[in-house]
Amino acid sequence: MMSKNVETFIGCEAEYEESKVVIFGAPFDSTTSFRPGTRFASRAMRGDSFGLETYSPYQDKDLEDIAVFDGGDLELVFGNTERALSQIEDFTEQVLADGKIPCMIGGEHLVTLGAVRAAAKKYPDLHVIQFDAHTDLREDYLGEPLSHATVIRRVWDLLGDGRIFQFGIRSGDRSEFQWGKEHVFTNKFNFDGLDRVARQLAGKPVYLTIDLDVLDPSVFPGTGTPEAGGVSFTELLQAIFQVSGLNIVGCDVNELSPVYDHSGVSTAVACKVLRELLLSIVD
Prior knowledge:
Layout: E1 21-26, H1 41-48, E2 55-56, E3 61-62, E4 68-73, H2 81-97, E5 101-106, H3 111-122, E6 127-131, H4 151-159, E7 164-169, H5 174-183, E8 185-188, H6 194-200, E9 205-211, H7 233-243, E10 247-254, H8 265-281
Parallel strand pairs: 1-4, 1-5, 5-10, 6-7, 6-9, 7-8, 9-10
Antiparallel strand pairs: 2-3
């Protein structure tokens, strides 16, 4: 039995028992390699979400018509990355055990590893779709194997070859791209081929991770490691809609760092991405 957060994301005020999706924040940015601040994302998104309507004209759906529970932010330990990941894993495992879909708000991208660990235990045939500017396939970053620059490599350690599908990638060390050719599917710059991957993964359990820096920084400047040349907001929404018919067993939206966009536009974009994601994965 969980009690919903005092301040919820707009339209996400259902009780835990009746909800199909559980959103929660993972305010962690201890391994951020450039500009920290993603720990403030979930709090900013909840507050700014009330500048949105619950209704989506893109999908003709309304958050008021679906049951989503907001579990608030996890109280993650400082100074112990592995323990913080274990806290995320434990919470995600509980949500999955209760037959619900966990939807995590990061936080830096490393938080995905904790959630995927839990999902892979319940779904041994788990596949991951990643929307991102960065490969995140380094074996280590400055000698550290747990980093937002290594998160997908650590996911690969769990899942192995042929189970990870990357889109929008436009940045990474040369060795990451070379290694990735042998082990993961990577589509650079855009979402070409996503429809083909969606057909391939039909019926399989899928975890969807959305690093918001997949967006062009002219659309989304509020992130710790901005990379020029990204996709548009509309292109990202269409990609989300393309995979929404899959068996999405877990998902996350990460890498908003609201302190780097005082206009609030980046937070507004993140809120709308989350709204559309929630509406697309709930029948």
